[in-house]
Amino acid sequence: MGNNIKETIKKRKNMVFLLIFFVLLIANILLYYSFFKHYFGHHIVNVPFAVVNNLLTMGAAIIIFGFISTRLPQFRDLRDSSIYEMGYLVIIGIFSILISYFNQSTHSGAFFMPFLNMFKVLSVVLIFMLLATKTRFFYNIMHRKATRRDLFFAFVFFSVLGCLASRYTIPVNNSFANVRNLIIMIASLFGGPYVGIPACIVSAGFRFFEGGTTALPCSLATVIAGFLGSLIYILNDGKFPKGRSVVILMFLYVGFEMALIIWLTPAYVSVVYINDIYPLMLFGGVLGMILCVMIFREVKPENKLSYEELKIMELENTLEEYEIEIEKLHDDVELLKEKNDIE
């Protein structure tokens, strides 16, 4: 009876998960349809052959380099592993030259600069996240030992990050990309409704009072991110989702946010705005979530000992062995003394 109830609950949870992803997927499809209608519905887009040629050759080079780099670790098993190190040095050198040539030939510096700026912002956010993993409140929440104080500190931490993300943006042609919803989604998936919902309300309120044409949809997207992440947290029994699932979730949610902007702002504003920031927001959201998952995996599990603790245990075991040996030697000495006394 109990197993049947558990199976029923599990099936219902899976249905809710599928429904969430389905709704986000539909929003992304509508977003891409809006793009297609805007760019191809009124005029034909002519793409220069040189651009296509550069993109294809660059893609082919990346695939070949990836293929070679995955085979290089096999040379580690050889006695002379110098080919392994030399191979990677050659690949890195050629790849750097290729990127430099591609950048000069296509004049793509202006294109890549916003992505580099987004990576800088991500780096700052992830440094704060990495520092947070060393705190007691983070450890307690990860291992389901959170007190009200821990949840409060987590709420303050993510709220401050969410507000800062609204201020530190990446400008692209009068549009501004940020990682606010990434932060709120992480807060909700990590701390649940007691962390995610208050943090999303604070961050959304901060963004709304900043004003602007997109204030309403951006604020609404932040609130939805907090509630959606909290719902997934509850459905997943308080566990942070697996890496692949959470990355797909972030990918779809960025598209959902862009769709909200289209639906809640005039078309002459929204499409141009999204055209500038969508690739950047997608890059920041997906890459940020991947790096966040990597950071969370570095957190020491409760049943895993640190290096220092293992060394202490090893020394204690060694000391016990020495004590046993000393006792044996002491017994041998006593036996020798007894023999000498008898003789």
UniProtKB/TrEMBL annotation:
GO terms for molecular function: phosphorelay sensor kinase activity. One of its GO terms (cellular component) is plasma membrane. GO terms for biological process: cell wall organization. Residues 136-297 form the Signal transduction histidine kinase 5TM receptor LytS transmembrane region domain. The keyword Methyltransferase does not apply. It comes from Methanobrevibacter thaueri. Its main location: membrane. Keywords: Cell membrane, Coiled coil, Membrane, Transmembrane, Transmembrane helix. It is a multi-pass membrane protein. This is Serine/threonine protein phosphatase. It is found in: Cell membrane. The keyword Coiled coil applies. The chain crosses the membrane at residues 16-35, 47-70, 82-102, 108-131, 151-170, 182-202, 214-234, 246-265, 277-296. Residues 305-339 form a coiled coil. It comes from the Archaea.
